[in-house]
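Hey everyone, long-time lurker, first post.

I ran two proteins through the pipeline my lab uses and got sequence/structure pairs for each. Pasting them in order. The first:
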Amino acid sequence: MRPDLTDVQLLRELEPVVERNLNRHLSMRKDWNPHDYIPWSDGKNYYALGGQDWHPDESKLSEVARVAMLQNLLTEDNLPSYHREIAMNFSLDGAWGQWVNRWTAEENRHGIALRDYLVVTRAIDPVELEQLRIEQMTRGFSPGQNDQGDSNLFATSLFDSVIYVTFQELATRVSHRNTGKACNESVADQLLARVSADENLHMIFYRDVSAAGFDIAPDQAMHSLHHVLRNFKMPGYTVPEFRRKAVIIAVGGVYDPRIHLDDVVMPVLKKWRIFEREDFTGEAARMRDDLGVLVEELEEASQKFEESKQRRLEREARKAERLAGKR
């Protein structure tokens, strides 16, 4: 059995793959300008410049859309932490470094565009948004972070990082796209479609680099895949009141257990042929089998959520009927 490769060895062996995928990314990417997707004519001054500060009645978005937009933006705001994480794990040398910096530059425009849209359209309280931004960025982010913000839950390796961001980028793409639809507003839908397209190309890069990693060191990669999926959390879980917001987002159909399983987990596992490969041995083979168990658990959780969601919607419908009857 081949001994585990060090991260330095993996970086070196994967660099040609990174260079090819970087060149492909640069040939496929479509540059866009955040300012083109902001309805500037809808804007007006706030109190400090003689205008009026925000009032809840000014928001034209539904609760689901507001919460999802806020969650997405606060997730994007932690870009400095994400840059630090991938720079530490991928290095800033050669093709790896070129990718890290290109990825960061493209990701940065997402937060710019989302914030401009929300502030100009007065969809969300900008004071609360700034307070949450400061708190979220102060907490930072690490894939090994626990609910209290401590970063020592588990150590991360190169494989941990590149496999984690494959799922995370796909989940983010799905979340942004569904949020755009939930906004029921053409400008927001166009903006989030552009953001989603970026996230999709980023996912493809990480997915294909990971695929090469499975070919180079299948058992080692499987250990990381099992580790990542058994402990998976989205970067936004450090956002204040995450659990409450996650429920609103899930019930609203933006991102729920079924979407996570069908649109995020399974497409990647199928692309990597995880359940078809025969090159896993020993503990790695047992971990692959346990991923089959995890998929069954996620399926059961999805069914339970759908049943719970239906009961909740029925309760809300009955409550609305009662209120209507009292008028």
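...and the second, right after it:
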Amino acid sequence: MGHSLKILGRTSSINVRKVLWTCQELDIPYDREDWGIGFASTQSGEFLALNPNAQVPVIIDDNGVLWESNTICRYLVSLHQRHDLLPTEPAARARVEQWMDWQATELNPSWGYAFHALVRKNPDYQDPQRIKAGVKSWNDKMGLLEQQLIKTGAYVAGNDFTLADILIGLSMHRWWMTPMEHPSYPAVSAYYETLSQRPGFKTFALDGHN
């Protein structure tokens, strides 16, 4: 399928890496430009014309401009008809998408304070009580993932690797690499080892990313 694709965003962004790993699973070519912290400003008029939220990633392809990382991933998988990654049958698709949405609305917000404090060393995030609360919140969410993986015995949405595993896999790696207390979650540990065998996880998680 001939289809040009440009991705705007720095690889240090976990949301950009969602899209890059998805492209690797799809085996599709793309051009990428560095935008965001340390690179071209997302506050520029040029970028804001593409995404008024001033956030990466943004993609530009034959169908136009798209932003919001989870939406971009859904779009690319659907465009290339990879129904193994995102089923077309409504119930099966919903099971994948509920975990994608959980990653964006529940898991991601839980790490905000602790990650900025412990990894980014941001001086505005150094309240010990808030760090402690943030670590607990993050670990509690990962405990929910542990229970789900115990149920499935494999991947987040069931027996097979899906788009939800790309998103949650990157988030799990960020949790694991943050210097803080990590409860014993055997199912999460096994899941981490399983994902570690995938080239996309090796490239966009293990190779020095957080």
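Reply from user beta_strand_b:
Welcome! Quick read of the second one: The chain has a mean pLDDT of 96. The longest helix spans residues 128-152.
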